[in-house]
Design a protein that fits this description.
The chain is an all-alpha fold and about 130 residues long. It has four helices and no strands.
């Protein structure tokens, strides 16, 4: 039987903290970029805002730790992994659409590649605690 609360114990607390930091950072960065430079790279900045929403959803779902929240966390983190890989590749393929770094551009290079590693750790943690 799955204990949904297991996601917020032990290393899960660190995972929630890191997701929270990324939710805050991505939201702030996207907000500033959209408010001040939207016309320069609208695709990149909207994708940053989408990343922020996904980080927020994952943070709350991991912290909430119910059966439904666990499913939400799994979907959010899986979408995050697909997003960082797709946007990372796209940012190399079409660099003119990414004149400024975003959370997922270049596979999260501007954030020390943590955006690429974080969803893998998140999915592994969800699997381990199931």
């Amino acid at each position: 039987m799955t204990d949904p609360a297991a996601t917020r114990h032990g290393p899960g607390r660190i995972l929630i903290l890191v997701y929270g930091v990324f939710a805050l950072a991505a939201t702030a960065r996207a907000g500033v970029q959209i408010a001040t430079q939207f016309d320069q790279a609208p695709i990149a900045y909207v994708l940053s805002a989408v990343a922020a929403v996904i980080y927020i959803a994952a943070t709350f779902a991991l912290a909430r730790a119910t059966k439904v929240a666990r499913r939400v966390a799994t979907v959010a983190i899986a979408v995050e992994l697909v997003g960082v890989i797709a946007i990372g590749a796209f940012s190399y393929a079409v660099p003119e659409d990414f004149p400024d770094a975003t959370v997922w551009s270049h596979f999260g290079q501007g954030y020390g590649f943590v955006p690429l590693v974080l969803p893998v750790l998140g999915l592994l943690w969800l699997r381990r605690t199931s």
